Every structure is written in structure tokens, then in C-alpha cells.
Backbone:
């Protein structure tokens, strides 16, 4: 194993790599590599037994040149200041590559929510919402779900914000339940853009997705839905899936939706009856499959592991699953990587649709959401491949950053703050 990469340094390296193909002033480039501001706070929460516990929490507002800061809130013991900075920076380039009118932000609490009761998680979430209230808003910073958060937490944050502000402001947060102003299709959106990116990539690379074998690391919101949609809508064969407890494998494939149902019932994919064998996460990542989808956390594939990746195509559902050193190895080995800032952008894109619907108080059908999402992702894919061909970038990631950075710089210049 090589030393664990710092995700914030990875982000900065990705920006630098793209800058080589752009005419961007070095002082302006510096601006694109650092967050504008970060809230760091300690949340004091009452436990069920009456004791108090203190939790560290962050919100990073990286860049707002193209619109309000936008990005999820993560609950995980591995959350850190640098991780949140990186995740907020990736949001800037993600919203730019799909060309939706947002900047980038991200938040997180250092906590494993599974160790706490529902009541304790609710009080923790409301305490965070209380701290966030002065810096979020429908036109300023709009949080959303990420690892270990979902509709429930978004509804609590909306409720706390609206109570404190004495108003209704559903657009202050996205990823809500439909009855609280959530959008049809938001739960599936991240997996759907992963599926659409895989479809476009296989087509571009002249490969057949129908019957392609697929391995998915991480079987939560992003991974399980990507797996199911690739199976249902593209005819792919899901042969492996994993979570934090381990991985399952069946060379003949298994029912991706049934594997998720099993995980929901038992807490893990391991032990699923359609699995022929169990693997480690590392073994899953190095399976000889047509398509590998990392859908868990950062740094899943480092340079050492990249040497052993046998997949032809990797589509990143997770944020930052491949370190820059690993990227170099995969590029060298002709493994095609479709980057996170495109492949998982469905989540924030449908969050944007949710916000538009909230602002207009007019709600769309799921079909309309899915059609608009497909348009956004295919247009972004085309912009990325155009840049890849025109600029001759070494891989699709750098092409995506070229497209995104150009858009952020243009917005900054047009603001008149830079000649
Ligand atoms: N939700 C969204 O809308 C979006 C999410 N993303 C990104 O997608 C990724 C996954 O997020 P999401 O699906 O929402 O999160 P979830 O919490 O729903 O799922 C995360 C999954 O990853 C698994 N996991 C965690 N650690 C490991 C590990 N070391 N090895 C293997 N699996 C592991 C978890 O296992 P277990 O169940 O055992 O905990 C779980 O199955 C993140 O990078 C996130 O930032 C990107 C865009 C939008
Ligand atoms: O839906 C959103 O606003 C953001 C989702 C997110 O956090 C991400 O894309 O990483």
C-alpha cells in the first residue's frame, strides 16, 4: 500500500494537471485551489442517557463564482477539514462541468451515525442546522445528502432552518422527501448519471455495454442504484458488489435489486444467497470485469492497486476514489476512467431541478426529471470528449477539468473582479 493520499492535495493536483492545457494566470489558478471560507464548529448534543457529547463539524464554501455554494453533508468518522475542503472543491468543478448555475460547497460531521439512536442523530442534525443557519440559504449555500445522510436528515435541516427564520424556504436544502418538497428522481439521480456515463463511454469507446460484466464497490445510494440501472436499462451483468463488511461475487451475475433488498434487511451484501463466493474489497477492485464502479469513499484505488486493476473502464460514482498517482498508472495502462465530476453529477443536477421546482412551487414528473438529467449528462459528456480530442489531454479527467475551469474562470472574469 502506498501512503494514503490527502484528498485536498489530490484536488489541487487535478486542477494543476488541467491548467497545463489552459491559459490561466498562476495567481488566478491559486484562487481555484483554495476554499473561500470554512466553518468549523463543535456541536454539543444531549445523549439519550442525559449526558452530553461534542462532535466536530465543518462546512466549506469553496467557490461561488457561478452561483450559490452547493454540495452534500457527510456523516462519517473519517470526515476531516481537508476531506471537506476537497469535496467542496470537487463540487465547484462538478457543477461547472454539467453547467448548472452553482458554485461548490460541502459539509460533514465526524460521527458514525450507526452508533447513535434516531433521537440522538436528530438532535445532532438540528444542532448542525442551527450552526449552519447564518451561512446557508436558498440563494447562498444549499446543502444536500452525502454518505450516511438522506431524506430524513434533509427534512430535519429544512425544518430547523424554517423554524429559526420564521419562513418557508424549501430550496434551502435538496434531497428532501417528496412530501417535504423533494424532487421525483433525486434518490436515483446519482446512480442514474453513473449509468448514463457508462452508456455514453462504452458507446464512445466502441464497446458493448449489453452483457458487460460490472463490479461495484460500495452498495449504498450511488452504488446500488447504478448497479440496478445498468442491469435493468443497459443489460449489463452485475457480478460483484461490496460494502464496508466485504464483497460478494458470482461470475454469472446476480439480481442487483435483490442484493440491495438483502443488504437493507441484514445490513450487508455479504451472505447474499445469489453470491457464489465472498471476496475482500481489494479483490473486487482487481476483478477482470468490463466495468468497475467505485462507489464508496476516496482513495479506494492507489498507485499500487492500480497496477492490478483489470477492468477496461472505470466509472467513478464515488468522489475521489482514485488517487492522482493511481490515475497516472491507469492512464499508462490504457484503463479508461470516467471521472466523478461527470459520472456522479446526477445527484447535484437533480438537486438543481429540485431547487428550481421549490422556487417555482411547481413540481415535475419523474419522467421529466429523468429526461432533463439525460440531456445534461450527455451534453456534458460531449463537451468532455470534445476537450479530450481538441486539447489532447491524457485522460478524460483532465478533459473534464479543462471544461470546468474554463467556465469558472469565465464567470469570475465577467464579474469584473479580474481583468
Ligand atoms: N448520495 C449522493 O447523492 C451522492 C453521493 N456521491 C458519492 O458517492 C459515494 C457514496 O455515497 P452514497 O452512496 O451516498 O453513500 P451511502 O452511505 O449511501 O453508501 C456508501 C457505501 O459505501 C460503503 N463503504 C464505506 N466504506 C467502504 C469501504 N471501505 N469499502 C467498501 N465499501 C465501503 C458503505 O458500506 P456500509 O453500508 O457497510 O456502510 C455503503 O454501502 C461517496 O463518495 C459520495 O460522496 C456523489 C454524488 C452524490
Ligand atoms: O445534491 C447535491 O447538491 C450535492 C451532492 C453531492 O454532495 C455530490 O455530488 O458529491
Residues:
Amino acid at each position: 500500500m502506498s501512503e494514503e493520499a490527502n484528498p485536498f492535495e489530490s484536488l489541487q493536483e487535478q486542477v494543476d494537471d488541467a491548467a497545463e492545457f489552459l491559459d490561466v494566470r498562476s495567481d488566478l489558478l491559486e484562487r481555484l485551489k483554495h476554499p473561500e471560507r470554512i466553518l468549523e464548529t463543535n456541536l454539543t448534543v444531549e445523549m439519550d442517557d442525559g449526558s452530553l457529547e461534542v462532535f466536530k463539524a465543518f462546512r466549506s464554501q469553496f467557490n461561488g463564482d457561478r452561483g450559490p455554494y452547493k454540495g452534500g453533508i457527510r456523516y462519517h468518522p473519517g470526515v476531516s477539514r481537508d476531506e471537506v475542503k476537497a469535496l467542496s472543491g470537487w463540487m465547484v468543478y462538478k457543477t461547472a462541468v454539467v453547467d448548472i448555475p452553482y458554485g461548490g460547497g460541502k459539509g460533514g460531521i465526524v460521527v458514525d451515525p450507526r452508533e447513535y439512536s434516531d433521537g440522538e442523530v436528530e438532535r445532532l442534525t438540528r444542532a448542525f442546522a442551527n450552526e449552519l443557519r447564518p451561512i446557508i440559504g436558498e440563494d447562498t449555500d444549499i446543502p444536500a445528502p452525502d454518505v450516511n445522510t438522506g431524506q430524513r436528515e434533509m427534512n430535519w435541516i429544512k425544518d430547523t432552518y424554517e423554524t429559526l427564520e420564521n419562513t418557508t424556504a424549501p430550496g434551502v436544502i435538496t434531497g428532501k422527501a417528496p412530501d417535504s418538497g423533494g424532487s421525483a428522481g433525486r434518490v436515483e439521480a446519482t446512480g442514474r448519471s453513473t449509468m448514463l456515463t457508462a452508456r455514453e463511454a462504452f458507446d464512445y469507446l466502441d464497446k458493448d455495454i449489453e452483457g458487460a460484466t460490472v463490479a461495484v464497490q460500495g452498495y449504498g445510494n450511488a452504488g446500488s442504484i447504478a448497479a440496478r440501472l445498468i442491469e435493468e436499462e443497459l443489460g449489463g451483468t452485475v457480478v460483484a458488489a461490496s460494502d464496508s463488511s466485504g464483497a460478494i461475487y458470482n461470475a454469472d451475475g446476480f439480481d442487483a435489486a435483490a442484493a440491495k433488498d438483502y443488504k437493507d434487511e441484514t445490513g450487508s451484501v455479504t451472505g447474499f444467497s445469489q453470491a457464489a463466493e465472498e471476496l475482500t474489497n481489494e479483490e473486487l477492485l482487481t476483478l477482470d470485469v468490463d466495468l468497475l464502479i467505485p462507489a464508496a469513499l476516496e482513495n479506494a484505488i492507489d498507485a499500487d492497486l492500480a497496477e492490478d486493476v483489470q477492468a477496461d473502464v472505470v466509472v467513478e460514482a464515488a468522489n475521489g476514489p482514485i488517487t492522482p498517482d493511481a490515475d497516472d498508472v491507469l492512464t499508462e495502462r490504457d484503463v479508461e476512467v470516467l471521472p466523478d465530476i461527470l459520472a456522479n453529477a446526477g445527484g447535484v443536477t437533480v438537486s438543481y431541478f429540485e431547487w428550481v421546482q421549490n422556487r417555482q412551487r411547481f413540481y415535475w414528473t419523474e419522467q421529466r426529471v429523468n429526461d432533463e438529467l439525460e440531456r445534461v449528462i450527455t451534453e456534458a459528456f460531449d463537451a468532455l470528449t470534445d476537450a479530450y480530442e481538441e486539447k489532447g489531454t491524457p485522460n478524460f479527467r483532465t478533459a473534464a477539468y479543462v471544461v470546468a475551469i474554463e467556465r469558472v474562470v469565465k464567470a469570475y472574469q465577467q464579474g469584473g473582479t479580474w481583468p
User: Anything to note?
Assistant: Residues 366-391 form the longest helix (26 residues). The longest strand covers residues 52-63.
